[in-house]
Amino acid sequence: MWILSETSFDPTKQHHKETIFTIGNGYLSTRGTFEEGYPNDRRATFIHGVFDDAPVVVTELANTPDWLATQVVIDGEKFSLATGTILAYRRDLDLQTGVLRREVRWQSPNGRVATLIFTRFASLADEHLLALRCEIIPEFDGQIELRSALNGQTDNEGLLHWRHIAQGQLADGAVFLRTRTRKSGIELALVMRLVGDAALTTTFWDVENVPTLRQVYQARSGTPIVVNKFVGVATSRDTGNPLELAHHHLQRVTDWDQELTAQRRAWACEWERCNVVIEGDEEADLAVRFSIFQLLIAAPRHDQRVNIGAKTLSGFGYRGHAFWDTEIFMLPLFIYTMPEVARNLLDYRYLTLPAARAKARAAGYEGAWYAWESADTGEEVTPTWVPDFHDKKKLARVWTGDLAIHISSDVAYAVQQYWQATGDDAWYIERGAEIVLDTAKFCASRAEWLADRGCYGYTDVIGPDEYHDHVNNNAYTNLLAQWNLRAGLETLAWLEQHAPQKAAELRQRLDLTAERLQHWQTVAEKMCVNIAANGLIEQFDGFFKLKDVNLADYEPRTKSMHEIFGIEGANEYQAIKQPDVLMLQFLLREHYSDSQIRVNYDYYTPRTDHTYGSSLGPPIQAIVACQMGDVDEAYEHFIRAARADLRDVRGNAGDGIHAASAGGVWQAVVFGFGGLRIHPDGTWEVHPRLPKHWQQLTFRFTLRGVMHIVTCYPDGRAIVA
Ligand code: BGC
User: Fold this and answer.
1) Is there an atom of ligand 1 within 6 Å of 466 CB?
2) Which of 125, 318, 422, 454 is 20 to 30 Å from the Cα of 501, by its Cα?
3) pTM of the shown model
């Protein structure tokens, strides 16, 4: 299934639908709001890297001027879904081509009937180009007026980020708007041109901040009127002269069909590398493709200075900030299907090393401590306080920016995964190695010698399970740090052999003395972990002494256990927000036998808030369930993740796509049901375990430049092409 459709308009689902009908091209995304507007819509276009200061949340992606704005006036009445009668309606997002189409047959309050078809796409072939077609088929004789605008009056839920610079009409008739973010000073230019049926009159309305082209048409019953609105877009992040660049991209456009063909071709190339097909389960088939699509439209193809936010570019949630969600949940899709995108995202971490070093230094440590929430500069932008969910008038302290140290090892882990999958030694030598070494340096510097235990550990941290803060020796944090330290030592040894000059340079620049390296070795060897004889790992010191909880006692519920217990209260129970120990075992799969995973799986699964905890949890839970052979249970978790946005199961899809969940859906299919295991030495195997009703699963992945297409069957067979 390639088409995501809706066949009726339901205003109560407006924000949810705006999110899932988002289009984009890796440079920007535009939410699925209507061209003509709708009361209380959340109209938004976000461009990668266009951040501006904001109170409390430090910085946020600024909602850019609205390029969609198009009013259709039918014999003096403004077309709107809020008035008149909707006689027919459908909307289709074609995931194969990234084209969104809406067709509405509408009767005006005065009884005029017309069919309006709006088609839009953000060109993947030319990321500075946006295209919108408006086709109107009147069922009356009279007049139709089109008002096509660039609307600079946008805000971020009330907060204004833009200062108007200039607007006007260029010699060729194109209309432009120049505007600049208030604090960060990023200039943006939009240039619009209309191509299509000749109008009776075309007038330029020079409304301040909303330059508009007004066209009047003679309407004849049954004769379509077609107008294509092309918009060029550029910012001062791209060039010294955004207006010129935006105009340049617009000038080369000749007609709709040509641009659409280029769009189709560009998308076909992308799907060729990453498509997944599930036969026997239409919902899953669409969901996995939808998940991939959402990540592809947020994937920076030509920019190394940006990361993908936890809500992609599709909503206001998390303000465009990036988390470990990128490295651990989204990156595998890119690493194994579009490595050049993965490299861009890792380059962002390389380029933000100075900020990570500064964060470590400010806290009294060495090396690189990445921001828990990261934006343009890589400085920590996690808000310190947010409204408390029990009483929105009160504030709750957010500790992740202060205590979640695992982010550094998560980044290092992704760097190594990229390197192993691609064999991109040149990049590793040039950039990746430095990340692994400097995060190892942080892990060693942050480690504390716990004399009473006779081991090194980390006190006062937060692990992946954020229902518990200020914990000591979170197993995930400790053991990923141990992995990071060893990876650092191995990296240096590898560099000595393969790039001795670089090894010498890094030794000197990062002060990697023999004593320091010896210390890394010791910390790694003596890392604290509470592990029972049967392999059960304690999530953190004292976890097993907390009050046990039977989550079934709280069913049915519509709230997370965090909301039920309260922020402080949740610390007293063994209920967890998302897999923590299981996440560790998933990442360090080679270190654990099946039986060691099983014992942890059995313990932690019933204590995890699968329904209302973190959306990051279910896909990982699904993968581990598959590995344990519990395919039915795996499917339950998988489908919960698959529905996160499509069915808005958590009720917050309106804030934007759950990007980590989307990446997790791909991983659950490929690593879970497909059973793909890639070993650190680059060898791989597949052991499919398909849900009962799946007739076939086909996925593709690229390793060391070679693409493999794997078809899996219900009997566990796999054919590799
Ligand atoms: C999760 C984090 C995640 C963040 C952004 C939180 O609710 O607990 O693990 O990084 O959301 O998606």
Assistant:
1) yes
2) 422
3) 0.98
